[in-house]
Amino acid sequence: MNTQHAEPEMLDALIIGAGFSGLYQLYCLREKLGLKVKVLEAGDSVGGTWYWNKYPGARCDSESHVYCYTFSKELTEEWNWSERYPGPDEIVSYLDHVTDRFNLRHNIEFETRVAAARFNEKDNHWDIEVDSGRLYRARYLITAVGCLSSANVPEIDGLKDFEGQWYHTGQWPKEGVPFEGKRVGQIGTGSTGIQAAPVIAQTAQHLTVFQRTANYSIPARNHKLNTEDRSSHKLNAAATRELTRNNSNGHGWLISEKQALKTSAEERTDIYEKAWQTGGLKFRASFSDLLISEKANATAAAFIKKKIHQLVNDPETASSLADIDHPYAAKRPPIDTHYFETYNRDNVELVDLRKTPILRITKDGVVCHKPDSKGQRTEKHHHLDILVFATGYDAITGTLLRMDIRGRNGLKLSDAWSAGPRNHLGLQVAGFPNLFMITGPGSPSVLTNMPAAIEQHVEWISDCIAFMIEQNHTTIESSESSVESWVNEGNAEANKTLLPSVRHSWYLGANIPGKPRVFMPYTGGLDKYRNICQKAADENYKMFVIS
Ligand code: NAP
After folding, report:
1. What are the angstrom distances between the C-alpha of 260 and each of 146, 150, 257?
2. Where are the alpha helices (DSSP H) in 47-105?
3. CA angle, corner 117, sides to 114 and 122, nearest 5?
4. Within 167-293, where are the H helices?
């Protein structure tokens, strides 16, 4: 850390990231607690995830009337969403509006990336350095960096030789990418790839989708909202707020209490069919036992696989798409707009990487291994002008660990988490006083509608800091024993579900070579988590070490 630089800027709290979390945290600490706060943001605008993810077809899979803040009735009343699911431009416009409405912009420094943060034990503050060398000093440091902000570009032999253009969906150029007349290759068929392929296919001369693991997807059934839809959402906003704050998933619906295994096959199919026609993530709420019983899950999986075969004309392509190796929704379940139907287009080809793995990238395409009829090894060259990596993220911990954060005794966060992330309530790491993480590992985060989880975290952190100030305390941190019990509780909750069983899941960090394989999100549900956090606050944070 460059201590030779000019005097640091003195703050009460420093927040990293100007997405949903950072903006609300800024608002709470400044407006409710009157603190001197600054947000540092790497991008040149607010928006977080949605600032970077402008790839073709990008769209939120939470419905717009719940993918928003609920803390201000006036804000809810005045903002009008245009579609059932908002796209990145509309979400960034919304966050821009919030920034201006609550006069937040002057507390944000854009194009400023945090490089390092050190806890100073003598004076109990954080020293923070950004990439330009500028320094800040703050009593509290709050990470609001999102869960999916470190792009994962796999190391495939030959990428550096590729003479076309290549892009990662999570770092999409603002000006867009023209596909007209181009042969495009897309690697990855997660939520992002499933959204991108249908849109790329509309203008590209040819699209080759490289699929390693086949995936379930449910139709999103996006549509424009009319005045009536919007009035109804606004009329029900208070009830929706109650619902999203007090259920397990933070969405505007409850998980059915019916069990798939206690429902007749005929009624079950009926329920799945209705959910398929309605569209969206609510499909996974059709029955209560889908994520805890393999047998129950298999009924949903079979329904979706049958749909894939009905939607895709070519039987071989349909078989590759439906050859799914994990339970439904045990990996993050995508929703789509005409994904499977896209493979009926003449200009779209699916390459099943389990049958024909990628060998290397060349200057003008991708070479796959293709066994011939005698099982001999041959090679197939897919000629490409543009390569799109829809290959996901070093999720949840990636961005936290890319910053050089050091706590007491110079302990590096990367060392504290060398065997996987460990913290208490997903909020605080032992040995890192006054550092709070919004939607970090160990919290419900990506298993919920994110703004609901974010509001809970921000409000809890704000109350905690208010308590610290009122009581004249200086530092708050987790104890090793509370971390240990939270890690155990997280593992116990995860093991009640089918989620940890999936081989390639980014929930487990398994998509990143060398990343410790630990199930990261808290699966106990947002409602249960909220109560646990509230109890900790009601007990005056006695589980924490306060000085
Ligand atoms: P992802 O779910 O991690 O999917 C990455 C895809 O790339 C997978 O198909 C993966 O295959 C493939 N892949 C990775 N490395 C590869 C390699 N070396 N060779 C071939 N294939 C490779 O990432 P994502 O689709 O970007 O989605 C990440 C998360 O972002 C989602 O789960 C969701 O939470 C969020 N998201 C949300 C929305 C929304 O709100 N609508 C939209 C997009 C994304 P394997 O499965 O075999 O590893």
Report:
1. 34, 37, 10
2. 49-52, 73-78, 88-101
3. 155
4. 191-203, 227-235, 237-245, 265-278
Could you give the CA distance from residue 82 to residue 73 in angstroms, rounded to a whole number?
Answer: 19
Cβ–ligand 1 distance for 390 under 6 Å, the answer yes
Q: How far is the CA of 156 from the centre of ligand 1 (A)?
A: 16
Which atom, in ligand 1's list, is nearest to the CA of 58? 42
Packing angle, helices 450-470 and 20-27, rounded to 10: 30
Q: Which residues fall within 8 angstroms of residue 294, CB to CB, at 6 or more apart?
A: 327, 498
The reply to whether ligand 1 has any atom less than 6 angstroms from the CB of 353 is: yes
What is the token pair recorded at 15? 């927040």
The separation between CA 164 and the C-alpha centre of its own chain, rounded to angstroms, equals: 29
> Hey, whose CA ends up nearest to atom 12 of ligand 1?
188
Where do the domains of the chain lie, and which CATH numbers do they carry?
Answer: 9-150+394-546 (3.50.50.60), 159-226+265-270+294-389 (3.50.50.60)
Q: Which of 24, 6, 4, 3 is nearest to 15 (CA)?
A: 24
* Nearest residue (CA) to ligand 1, atom 33: 191
**67-93 pLDDT, tens per residue?**
999 999 999 999 999 999 999 999 999
Check residue 371 and give its pLDDT: 78
Q: What is the mean pLDDT of the chain?
A: 97
* 83, 194, 511, 512, best to mutate for ligand 1 pocket (most atoms within 8 Å of CB): 511
- Taking the C-alpha atoms of residue 492 and residue 515, their distance in angstroms, rounded to an integer, is 21
pLDDT in tens, 492-521: 999 999 999 997 899 999 999 999 999 999
Record the pTM.
0.97
Which tokens hold the place of 227? 């005045």
Establish whether residue 213 lines the binding site of ligand 1, counting it when its CB lies within 6 angstroms of any ligand atom: yes
Burial class (CB in 10 A: 0-12, 13-18, 19+), 264: exposed
The closest of 127, 206, 203 to 403, measured between CA atoms, is 127
Nearest alpha carbon to residue 286 among 298, 296, 271, 301: 271
Distances from the Cα of 6 to the Cαs of 130, 310, 493, in angstroms?
13, 66, 48
- The bridge status of strand 206-211 relative to strand 348-352 is parallel
The β-bridge relationship of strands 435-437 and 135-143 is parallel
Amino acid in the structure at residue 535: K
119 φ/ψ sector (left φ>0, alpha ψ -120 to 50, else beta):
beta
What's the pLDDT tens digit per position in 7-60?
999 999 999 999 999 999 999 999 999 999 999 999 999 999 999 999 999 999
Write the DSSP string, 498-538.
SGGG-TT-GGGTTTSTT------S--S-HHHHHHHHHHHHH
Nearest CA to ligand 1 atom 20: 212
CB of 91 closer than 6 angstroms to any ligand 1 atom: no
